[in-house]
Design a protein that fits this description.
Layout lengths: L3 E6 L1 H10 L1 E4 L1 H8 L7 E6 L3 E8 L4 E2 L18 E16 L24 E4 L1 H12 L2
Parallel strand pairs: 1-3
Antiparallel strand pairs: 1-7, 2-6, 3-4, 4-6, 5-6
């Protein structure tokens, strides 16, 4: 069964995802959820602040690495993002989708006044419907 994930990242780490084709999460805030990712799952990247940059497919099991490739400054402490998964690009937008276009349409934000609270974690599972909506918009750009 394929799962769909929304991954929350900053601009600097989005560049790492695109160039190195790997996604990593902090040890304390993301290990349990990334361990649920399987090859064939799709990862949608939400780039702070407020845009969807692209979709990648997981092509490996989760692995651990101490290579320092990710930015950690906004966390206030050094962080390696040791739990990682290798990726294959599916669609990376030249023109990202502003999240405001989607707020009333996505099941995980619809009807929420403070929708951004849902995006304060490294990753969250999203529905197939939400995935298809986002993918369609990215591919149409």
């Amino acid at each position: 069964m394929v799962n769909y994930w929304l991954c929350v990242t900053n601009e600097e780490n989005w560049r790492v995802v695109k160039s190195k084709k790997v996604w990593g999460v902090p040890e304390k805030r993301g290990r349990k959820i990334i361990e649920a990712v399987r090859p064939g799952d799709y990862l949608i990247f939400y780039v702070k602040s407020k845009r969807i940059g692209g979709i990648f497919e997981a092509v490996s099991e989760v692995f651990e690495s101490s290579e320092r490739i990710f930015s950690w400054g906004e966390f206030g402490r050094e962080e390696i993002f040791p739990f990682r998964v290798k990726l294959r690009p599916v669609v990376v937008a030249d023109e990202p989708i502003e999240i405001g276009e989607l707020i009333g349409k996505l099941s995980f934000t619809k009807g929420l006044r403070r929708w951004s609270v849902r995006l304060r974690r490294a990753m969250l599972r999203v529905s197939a419907r939400d995935f298809k909506l986002i993918r369609g918009l990215l591919e149409s750009r």
